[in-house]
Amino acid sequence: MVYGVSFGGKHSFRDWKLLLNERPKITPPSPKTIYIDIPGGDGRLDLTESLSGDVKYETRSMEFIFITTAARKKWPVLYSEILDYLHGQEMMIILDEDTEHYYFGRVFVNEWKSSEKYSTIVVDAEVEPYKMEMFSSLENWEWDSFNFETGVIREYSELRVDGTLDFTVIGSRKKVIPRFIVHSDDGSGLQVAYNGNTYSIPDGTTQVVNIAINSGTSVLTFTGNGTVSIDYRGGRL
Length: 237
Prior knowledge:
The chain is mostly beta strands.
């Protein structure tokens, strides 16, 4: 199997006959740290998590080095085609070796070098810190790409609430505020309890800013009569 990279709707090998010369370089995102000096005291005051309760990150960089297998006479046309499609564009990036997730950011063609026998192209990207789950909890899974060892099956669509429903959401590293899609029987909406607080969620689509799903398991308790769908897409570093 030839491993490659999907940029938007194009695949590096299937569409452009580009071979990865080495493994993709993916830098870890730098934490956004906040330190305040303590005059006359030891050390510094760490306020990194004070505003959001979680560590926030800068964007991360990716680098892909490809060798083209196309005939030499096609190199100029291929180069222009790749530039037209990629250079400066914002898109999803999916690695063949990690098809459960995608990166999202801006792509740049960094360098193109040609010798007598082959041509090398370097593609860079500046992407969001988290790689996101390929499918949200309300989208259909593709079982061919599902990893039975690490994957999470999320069946969060049209959950029936008749009085009370306790529902467990399996969170990922990225803190996510899910969307609730409610259809109550009498039009009055539902209520949801989370971490000791109760919130009203009307019919339609709603986000509750105080309901942010962390890694691990989170229990949501719904009360009322109707259905609720939880639109959640996890992300990890």
